[in-house]
Write a structure and sequence with these properties.
The complex is a heterotrimer of chains A (about 400), B (about 290) and C (about 325). Chain A is built from 13 helices and twelve strands. Chain A is an alpha/beta fold. In chain A, helix 6 crosses helix 7. Helices cover about 75% and strands about 5% of the residues of chain B. Chain B is globular. Chain C contains 14 helices and two strands. Chain C has a two-stranded antiparallel sheet with strand order 1-2. Classes of the chains: A alpha/beta (about 400), B mainly alpha (about 290), C mainly alpha (about 325). Chains in contact: A-B, A-C, B-C. Chains A and C meet through helix 1, helix 2, helix 4, helix 5 and helix 7 of A and helix 1 and helix 2 of C.
Chain lengths: ~400, ~290, ~325
């Protein structure tokens, strides 16, 4: 008796787990599975991206007249979870997946999406390999590391030109993680060929992404006696680094990132106050003057009255655009069939967009080319676009004035 | 490479090391007496760091003033944790203790995430960005004060264990559990007191640490690991060993960062740990068992 | 006896038939469960059988994964050859750690911390190994997703499910054999009281080394599986201490030293994790972190009230054991 009960329970459990998620009814709605790391060590970025997703259905309904339903999933900064959450979203009827900020998770989700034939639009993830696998259902509307570096270096040249400065030397500091390494490779490949740039790198210092103390790193960088600091960072290390520079009384001409997160983020301003000013990040950015940006900004402020889009520009902006790409394809395809959707995404040509650069068009690898970067300088507690001139809200300041406590 | 550079880096390494040593001291005291390795140590310190930022933001208290209320609260927290949760585990196998404290750590980290959100918190005081100039050496003020706080707290703890009756009773219970029971000591109470004192070390270290590092919920595990490394190097259960271990790790990481790649400096700590475990498993200042 | 084996046969039949009626999501969850069950079983040989607490088993998963993955990535050599390299490297590494530790009389907490140190040391080391991708990660070419290319271990998720199911079954059989062999009895003697075992003339060093070798070899295989299932490897993910903890959660919750503990534990934990996520979603509580708080509280409850894990009392209840 007992055994039979046991077996029956097992069978019931198995059958239960096999229940199909949702009966497939053709509702006139696009279901977008949004996979972001809202908890775990990437939590703060995941939550920032989520803000861009949350405002998407409202804005898109108004813009395109199509209904978008979000299915949110938190992958807890864990790749196993990213994979099972992706399977789950697809089973529950997601027509398209969007996410996940992290390259490792993006690679895991891409495999699921490809296997199930469901389009996956990557919002942010820079590892070039993801779109080099020959996937048919994976799309990325973000720059790869090499593009970020190319644009970042070009903007450094523009910056020097605009400020009539000729720095001769730079010390290069970078965080030693997935992103930092990809960027370093890009710089190593591109910088020697940029002969128009006047400076050379006199020392390279890599540091631990989880560093809690950057005394040695900054001492070493200071000893290199370079004109400016070229920095590829994350958020917390950027804050520690900036403070340590003041403590060690090191005042180079400026801090310039050829394309990394950190210095334009809200936390950087909050933690450092006036000290945050004049840091420069050359990053994929939204055009503050574009029509769509203004619409998104309005929606953003309505949902987050105490917040500013400036601080979430990159995260929320690219997450919103990823959903927009899906919705636009849905409108043209008039179908939620994944294959039709993927074909429609391949035909994407969105001109009225938030980010800088040319229209959103995917190449045969599923990668958008020609996304523009901006030179974003921190001014009066806000990340401010200073270059390219067409999108600029202020003039760049370089060298940065000497920091004095007020 | 100039000598000034080395001197600067070594001084900073010693000062930071003392603060790390204080944190590790808590772990060492708890293990020395209760024989439980606190795998939630770094997470507990993260809680103290949050407490300091909250007191600073709400009441404008300087982190070194926060030490008093936070330490008091942590003493109670440590006492209750030991009495209520950990005490039944002291006779259980290590993996069971490990699992218990891992679960505690998981709850702490994620409760912090729920309450404070994912962004970093910090305090801003006027001496935070200043440094003393002694010859060619720049000494960061906050770091120096933190190291002072560490030395004072550690000395007070030494004095407590050497001079007071309760301190002696705790040491007796640590040396001979059965004997302590026989002479009628309330061992449960003494164990809980010890855990409370360990938590006080963590509280002081945490309050001082916010001056150097911004606090985020997932910060804890790295500190737990760091505390392990330090106490093993210094000698698990040895109080001076924890401070010595802290300084040693501070300086060796600093020099490794200077001479090799800074991103690889963590390897040297773990390398040092492996060497110590192999050639002097009781740690530099530990007693042979 | 017959009752237990009948139950086992039914379970096996269910698992073999599972893909026929389970959805893709259930299949991916089942694969994850079996992966942790298998790796937990491997860990259990060292801790559950021989009493040596390793908190750094991610070391063997990572080295195994990178060994086979590296061969495939650089030379196109498939996992069947890479498997042996992975096993050889991990056994050598395990014996090295074991030799150092046991020769110098390191045990208990100290041994556990030594294993963490080795895993962390290796993690940072791999962050500086550019040949294997460093922190930028190693991406294996993903191809042929629909056909079963068993030679190169490339194929649809179903193939990986059956592969890990087979590994689980093999590990179970091996562990059962081990437990009933001379080694098993010696290990238990060492686990319960090493000094007494030594006094009885057992060469504890040798038998502990054997446990480490078998455990690291088995874990190497799970690393190879991981590399070809996920196709991308990052030192920060694979060697991280949180991975080591994930590996041991299953066997500890299920029952250390038992044959079914690791399997049951992995299943319970994975389903619990999903269950909490679903429950919270149903309640509309979408605060990041709340899921892990609940998960932590349940873990606390289990270690508090079921000190030997779930399996022993469950087995008694089902009368699968005397």
């Amino acid at each position: 008796m007992k055994r039979r009960q046991f077996n029956r329970a097992l069978a019931a459990a198995a059958a239960f787990s096999a229940l199909p998620g949702i009966v497939k009814a053709q509702a006139p709605k696009l279901k977008v599975g949004v996979i972001l790391p809202r908890s775990g060590y990437l939590g703060f970025i995941g939550q920032s991206c989520q803000k861009g997703a949350d405002l998407a259905p409202g804005v898109i309904k108004e813009m395109l007249g199509v209904d978008v339903e979000l299915m949110n999933a938190d992958f807890e900064s864990n790749v196993d979870t990213a994979r099972t959450r992706a399977e789950r979203l697809i089973q529950e009827g997601a027509h398209v997946l969007v996410g996940p900020f992290d390259s490792g998770a993006a690679a895991a989700i891409a495999q699921v999406a490809e296997q199930r034939g469901v389009p996956f639009v990557i919002n942010i993830a820079a590892a070039p390999q993801i779109t080099e696998q020959g996937y048919k259902y994976v799309f990325r509307n973000f720059q790869t590391a090499i593009d970020i570096v190319r644009n970042g270096l070009d903007l450094i040249g523009d910056l020097f030109q605009a400020t009539h400065t000729v720095p001769r030397t730079a010390v290069y500091m970078h965080v030693n993680d997935t992103f930092g390494q990809a960027m370093t490779k890009g710089i190593g490949a591109l910088l020697p060929r940029r002969t128009q740039l006047p400076f050379k790198i006199v020392d390279t210092i890599s540091y631990d992404p989880a560093a809690k103390d950057l005394t040695v790193e900054v001492s070493k960088a200071k000893a290199a006696n370079a004109d400016f600091l070229l920095l590829v960072c994350r958020l917390n290390d950027a804050i520690i680094l900036r403070r340590e520079m003041v403590k060690q009384r090191w005042n180079p001409m400026g801090i310039v990132s050829p394309g990394s997160p950190g210095m334009y983020e809200e936390q950087y301003f909050k933690a450092l106050g006036k000290l945050s000013d004049y840091s420069i990040s050359n990053v994929p950015w939204y055009n503050p003057n574009s029509k769509l940006t203004k619409v998104v900004e309005k929606a953003f402020l309505k949902q987050n009255p105490k917040d500013k889009l400036d601080f979430h520009g990159l995260n929320a902006g690219f997450t919103f655009e990823a959903i927009l790409i899906a919705a636009d394809a849905y409108k043209r395809a008039r179908s939620t069939d994944p294959k039709t959707l993927a074909d429609a995404i391949r035909q994407t040509n969105i001109v009225d967009k938030m980010s800088l650069g040319g229209p959103i068009k995917f190449n045969e690898k599923g990668q958008v080319e020609g996304i523009g970067s901006a030179c974003v300088q921190n001014m009066n507690g806000l990340p401010t676009v200073v270059l390219p001139q067409a999108a600029a809200k202020a003039k760049p300041v370089f060298p940065a004035p000497y920091y004095k406590k007020t | 490479m100039s000598l000034d550079l080395v001197a600067n880096v070594v001084v900073a390494g010693v000062l930071t090391g003392l603060l790390y040593g204080l944190m590790a001291l808590g772990l060492s005291v708890i293990f020395g007496v209760v024989r439980v390795v606190n795998f939630a140590h770094g997470e507990m310190m993260t809680v103290a760091m949050y407490a300091a930022t909250v007191l600073f933001a709400e009441l404008g208290l300087d982190p070194f003033v926060c030490v008093l209320p936070v330490a008091a609260a942590f003493f109670v927290f440590g006492y209750v944790l030991q009495r209520g949760l950990i005490n039944p585990f002291i006779t259980r196998p290590e993996h069971s203790q490990f699992m218990l404290l891992v679960a505690v750590a998981m709850v702490l980290v994620n409760a912090l995430l729920m309450v404070f959100g994912p962004s970093a918190r910090t305090v801003q005081v006027d001496y935070q960005l200043e440094s003393f100039e002694i010859g060619k050496i720049l000494v960061d003020k906050a770091r120096l004060y933190a190291a002072f706080a560490a030395v004072i707290t550690a000395s007070a703890l030494f004095a407590f264990f050497k001079l007071t009756l309760v301190g002696k009773a705790i040491r007796a219970a640590a040396d001979n559990h059965l004997g302590a029971l026989v002479v009628g000591l309330d061992v449960k109470h003494l164990y809980a007191l010890t855990f409370g004192l360990g938590a006080v070390c963590v509280a002081v270290a945490g309050c001082a640490m916010v001056l150097l590092v911004d606090v985020t919920p997932p910060l804890g595990p790295a500190y737990t690991l760091l505390a392990f490394v330090i106490v093993i190097v210094g000698g698990l259960g040895s109080m001076p060993g924890a401070l010595l271990g802290g300084m040693l790790i501070g300086v060796s990481e600093a020099l490794a960062g200077l001479l090799v790649a800074p991103s690889a400096k963590g390897m040297f700590s773990f390398g040092l740990l492996i060497l110590v475990l192999l050639f002097r498993p009781q740690g530099l200042l530990g007693k042979k068992t | 006896m017959s009752k237990a084996s009948a139950a086992l046969a039914v379970l096996a039949a269910l698992l073999i038939a599972l893909p026929a009626f389970a959805g893709n999501y259930a299949l991916s969850v089942a694969t994850l469960i079996l992966y942790f069950a298998y790796t937990g079983q491997a860990w259990n040989v060292m801790m559950g059988f021989a009493g040596q607490l390793s908190l750094g088993h991610a070391l063997y998963v990572g080295v195994g994964a990178y060994a086979a993955g590296g061969l495939f990535f650089h030379y196109g050599i498939g996992p069947w050859a890479g498997l042996w390299l992975a096993i050889a490297l991990c056994v050598a590494l395990g014996l090295f750690v074991g030799f150092l530790a046991f020769r110098f009389g390191i045990s208990g907490v100290y041994f556990a911390l030594l294993t963490i140190a080795f895993a962390e040391f290796t993690r940072i080391g791999f962050d500086h190994l550019d040949w294997l991708g460093g922190p930028g990660g190693m991406f294996l070419k993903v191809a042929q997703r629909d056909t079963w290319d068993i030679l190169n271990f490339r194929g649809p998720p179903l193939m990986y499910y059956y592969a890990i199911l087979f590994l689980c079954a093999a590990a179970l059989a091996l562990c059962r054999l081990l437990l009933r062999s001379k080694a098993g009895y010696y290990w238990q003697a060492i686990r319960e009281n090493e000094e007494a075992a030594q006094a009885l003339g057992i060469d504890t060093f040798r038998w502990k080394m054997l446990a480490v070798a078998i455990s690291s070899a088995m874990t190497a295989v799970s690393g190879v599986f991981f590399a070809f299932y996920y196709n991308n490897l990052f030192p920060e993910q694979i060697f991280h201490i949180s991975r080591s903890i994930e590996i041991i959660l299953g066997p500890v919750i299920g029952g250390v030293g038992t044959l079914f503990g690791p399997i049951l534990g992995a299943a319970v934990l994975t389903l619990l994790s999903d269950g909490i996520t679903d429950g919270l979603a149903a309640l509309g509580w979408e605060i990041p972190g709340i899921k892990q708080v609940f998960y932590g509280v349940v873990l606390l409850g289990v270690v508090m009230f079921l000190p030997n894990g779930i399996w022993p009392p469950l087995a008694r209840m089902l009368r699968l054991r005397k």
